[in-house]
Amino acid sequence: SNNIIVAIDGYSSCGKSTLAKALAKKLHYIYVDSGAMYRAVALYFLRNNIDMSDHAQIEEALKNIHLNFHSRDYETHITLNDEEVSEEIRQMPVSEKVSEVAALKEVRREMVKQQQRMGKSKNIVMDGRDIGTAVFPHASLKLFMTADPSVRAQRRYDEIHLKNPEVTLEDIFENIAHRDYQDTTRAESPLVRAEDAVILDNTNLTPEQQLQFALERIEALK
Ligand code: C5P
């Protein structure tokens, strides 16, 4: 098929979803936040006390998890078994659990399968950790985003502070560092730059500059 797939990978809180959303909106592509899927699975695991060392329990849980996106406005709206969980998956309990859950090979296999299905025939922008390496190794364009860790923590803090005044900048910094460590060192499709991915360090770039950077590269594909 000749649909366009833009894969955006990178470290935690690098602005991947901000760029992915802006790009999808501008080009009228579908936007898929793959991290939201792992977060929703983590929420289910938390609520149901799934034992992560028990493979049968993991498989059973995955059979009982049904995820759906409703991306009517390019924001992430995700349901877990028909319950809207878009807010809850951003809270600290899920952020603290998600990287462990995402390291499970059964979980990855199932999520990757669903993600590949979404990119079958439509133009799509998907962000995550393994989109250019495992989900769409033949993506039309691959971006790998990085930014200074303290800049990343500050941005995330500014984003959630009003709704979560109890969370400190330090909590966020530590969570980001923890997830980066987990995500880059896990056995199953770790976070790594695909050889053909373009690096985008946005420490000193505005969202508008990042969008221009990506648009120019998409334009160059044509
Ligand atoms: O993108 P976001 O930060 O919301 O992702 C949450 C977590 O989900 C990541 O820290 C990572 O552990 C996991 N993830 C992943 N593969 C993806 C997307 C997210 O392992 N494609």
UniProtKB/TrEMBL annotation:
It comes from Mucilaginibacter lutimaris. One of its GO terms (molecular function) is kinase activity. Its EC number is 2.7.4.25. HAMAP family: Cytidyl_kinase_type1. The lineage of its organism: Bacteria, Pseudomonadati, Bacteroidota, Sphingobacteriia, Sphingobacteriales. This is Cytidylate kinase. Keywords: ATP-binding, Cytoplasm, Kinase, Nucleotide-binding, Transferase. ATP binds at G10, Y11, S12, S13, C14, G15, K16, S17, T18. It is found in: Cytoplasm.
